[in-house]
Amino acid sequence: MKMSGLLLFIVGILFKESCGQGTVTVSPDVTADNGSPTTLSCTYTVDNNYLLYNLDWTRGESVRDGFRIADFVKDVDQPIYYSNFSSSEYTASRDKINRIASLAIASVRFQDDSELFWCRIQVYTSSGSVTQISDSIEVIVTVSSGQVMITVSPTLNVDSGSSATLSCSYTTDASYGYRLYFVSWSMGETLRDVYKIAQFQEEGDSPVYYNNYSPPDYIAARDVANGVSTLVIASVDFYNDTGLFWCRLVLADGYSESEPIEVNVIVPPGSITISDHETGTYPGGGTSYLVEGESRQYRCVVPDINPGATFTWTVGGRSLTADSNNDVIGSNGLTTSTSNTSITAEARNDGEMLQCQASNKNGHDGVSTTVVLDVKVPPKASSMSLFDSSGPLGNQVDVIEQTAHTFTCRVEGTKPAATIKWYLDDVEQTAATTTPGVGTGLVDTESHWTFTPQRVNHRNTVKCEANTVESVGQFPLISTTLIVIVLEL
């Protein structure tokens, strides 16, 4: 990724500074490429009652605290240069007739010349009092695209506890005379607020480590010939290594380029639980007891992960839709993910597994837990039948007076086995034989009742009623009406 680019050229108006004794008018602010020439100029006036004492150029944040470059004393044509400013790099000149001063910079440097340049005149009266008048030109030195480049992979996703390698490739265009000063690795949200990890000075390949970063936990390396630097983290930690890692390139003239790599530390699920409001939290492989037709919501929770998890619910291998999913970031920075789903129990669910699976990384199964559904199925009238030796019975049945008649009641598909009771015109009959179904799943139950009808039983109702512990309300039943046949002797 290219990080540098030309700053916009700043076009200014002419600026004038006046105090009544004279004026100084400077040219607009200047934007120039690093290494290119540029010329600054100013015009000045001196009122008739004043004399020009001195004209100078200064570089710095203020004219008072800046570094003086050159000055012209009174009417002298040749400037005097100061400090480390030489006429070969900074050429000052002036036109006394038109009162124009200029400063030509042979090759602007990012480190030195990205400053304010002040044009100042000092005027005085015959009494000897001196007044200063000045104004500034801002010089913005840019490094053009293509001259310095840094390339990184912007994002790195890595599992907590595993190793990670961050890589940075860089180039500097030698044709522009750029000399590399150092390459460094740092960590922090911004370059202003970072912890430096390691730094390579100039062409060196042995880093200096900072801020308790050191091998074998953090190993910085550099391939000088190919312009590549790497940082290897031996065991990535969520708390210490989540964030931006900066690869920074600093040139000898002070110009710098940097690119961040965002390290996302994946903390996979370590535990998972299923719970409901009836039972609370189930142990893995626990049993959830329901009654057919009952609706229940289950909650799946995965704590202390990063990022949040995605959930998959199944029952008996069939997909279930989640009612809701939610992520909450705790004070420790880790996420607790929650998912809810609801089931309306059916007979077929008995013995099936309800499974919750959670993962926070593509291509990985993550963790899962299961609950076995134990569905109680009370009897229903639709699953009951009444018959005798001749077959299923309808609304009425013919019986012969004084002749024993056996009725059979069958209740199918209950869990547990049904309790069957017999009634003759709402009077419970106890002389019945019941054969309960065997097994832990859905079972069928049969009961047999034999009685000898009398003439008084004509139009009596025979009822078979069934229930289990889970039955509520009116118990289901099936019935038939006796038609007593009297045989004449």
Structurally, the number of domains stands at 4
Would you state the CATH class of the largest domain?
Mainly Beta
CATH level-four homologous superfamily name of the largest domain = Immunoglobulins
Secondary structural class: mainly beta
List keywords for this structure.
about 500 residues; 2 helices; about 55% strand; Immunoglobulin-like; single chain; about 0% helix; six-stranded mixed beta sheet; rod-shaped; 4 domains; disordered N terminus; mainly beta
Structure description:
By secondary structure, the chain is mainly beta. The protein has 4 domains: 15-142, Immunoglobulin-like (Sandwich), CATH 2.60.40; 148-266, Sandwich (Immunoglobulin-like); 273-376, Immunoglobulin-like; 381-485, Sandwich (Immunoglobulin-like). Helix content is 2%, strand content 56%. It is built from 2 helices and 41 strands. It has a 6-stranded mixed beta sheet, with no helix packed on it. A 6-stranded mixed beta sheet has the order 13-21-20-15-16-17, with no helix packed on it. The longest helix is centred in the N-terminal third of the chain and has 4 residues, at 110-113.
